[in-house]
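quick one before i forget lol
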Amino acid sequence: MAGNERGIVIESLAELDLTIERRGLVLSPNGDPSELEGVLNPASARARDGALVLYPRDVAPGNVSRVGRVFVTPKTDGFEVERDGFALEPHADYELRPQPGYGCEDPRVTFIPAIDRYVMAYTAFGPAGPRIAVAISHDALTWERLGLMRFERPGMSAGDDKDAAFFPEPVLSPSGERCLAFYHRPMLHLSAVDGRAAIPMIERLPFEDRESIRIGYVPLAAVIRNIQALLDVSESVLVLSPNGDWGSIKIGSGTPPVRVPQGWLSLYHAVDLIDNSGSRPKFRYSAGVVVHDIERPDRVIYRSPHPVLAPTTGRELTGTVDNVVFPTAIDPRPDLGGGIFDIYYGMADYSIGAARMTLR
């Protein structure tokens, strides 16, 4: 059931009782030119002093994107927010281009104790198209760009890529190397194909050849020696593809993973076709849960048989892009008890909502 999934059973694990309850609107455009076209898809982090910071994608006219910085205080009856400028504005050459649609999009932030840094992975939309870029911070407030991720090993996809989010702890790669890991989603090259015509092309592809979630790996020892090595990807492996149950068109990562007793848990997004009879296809973006093995996250031990969050409210059904819930931030709430997490998500590519997830 959308928004409320109970009694989930995980193979080889004990039953996982998971509920998700909406908590309402967090942030919507306030009339400032920098966010006239939307404030959406935020990252989150707890600063060194414990303050909750959201980093929304602020969209100005012409689809120019910046990463905002907003202090958020959850209340029992809503959210208190304080905008504090921008974490990133487009100025690197890989974030700028003369035609409309460029900038810094859809960030995810992870604090990684092994390198004592906040790491922001975001989509840099520049002259080459969407690419994964990385910025780092000591305090979650001021950010330093490192550059674009480098997929230079033989056999790696080095083209359009999105939805990157780092794991918070080192893990083992498939080859057995201790690494920092991150989600990413290489994209299909269908930009020159009419939207309606692309759908049957996608539906003829095997599920594993459709846009899917991969995990990339960066050797930890190299990063400790030189933080610039955080950009050098040594391995990348497919971990989750669309299937025929739901999310059959494409899937991609959502929130960064969090550690739970069962493994690494995160929410991901999945796309279904609603209608392809008009001039443009209509899609639905829903959210599911995935759990990875704690030591080897390329081993998926659970995925949602149904969406745990799907567009049903007015702000989720109608906006810049209709029928969208897009989870991008997860905030553990140990102050409320074990197994409680606040989820922040984009609603119809225009505003930001929150939901509370409870694992019993």
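fyi Residues 77 and 283 are 32 Å apart (CA to CA).
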